[in-house]
Amino acid sequence: MFETHTSKDGITIxxxxxxxxxxxxxxKAYCREIEKCRKVVxxxxxxxxxxxxxxxxxSQANIKEQAVKQLKIYxxxxxxxxxxxxxxxxxxxxxxxxxxxxxxxxxxxxxxxxELIEGDDDxxxxxxxxxxxxxxxxxxx
Length: 141
Hints:
With 141 residues, the chain is mainly alpha-helical. The protein has a domain at 4-100. 49% of the residues lie in helices and 9% in strands. It contains 4 helices and 4 strands. It has helices at 20-42, 46-54, 60-88, 93-100; strands at 4-6, 12-14, 114-116, 125-127. A two-stranded antiparallel ribbon has the order 1-2. Strands 3-4 form a two-stranded antiparallel ribbon. Strand 3 (114-116) and strand 4 (125-127) form a beta hairpin. Helix 1 (20-42) packs antiparallel against helix 3 and helix 1 (20-42) packs parallel to helix 4 (93-100). The longest helix has 29 residues, at 60-88. The radius of gyration is 20 Å and the shape is globular. The mean pLDDT is 78.
């Protein structure tokens, strides 16, 4: 929780020095941005399609690609703020549920599992290669 936060006016403080309201508002702002990116990726909108039609530099794929990149950045940045909020007992789960568009576990549709490699000391995980989409099922190329 010793990462820094830079406010709109350029002042940099430790996240652990933010007051509860500022911390909550920052998490909520990240959640709104995550929700926007998620919607661009998962729900093609007429607005995005119009941008792609009238601007030759953009396509639906470009917009989605940019949204995925931003989503990863926001998700990464959010973690330190969430850790601090959790430590303080702030309940921001509703905002997170809306941002990520879910309320529970994501069910594994493809049967992909991760196994701890036995006898390996560094606790790596690897794919069990049993799912039909794994390249090992396509034979030698």
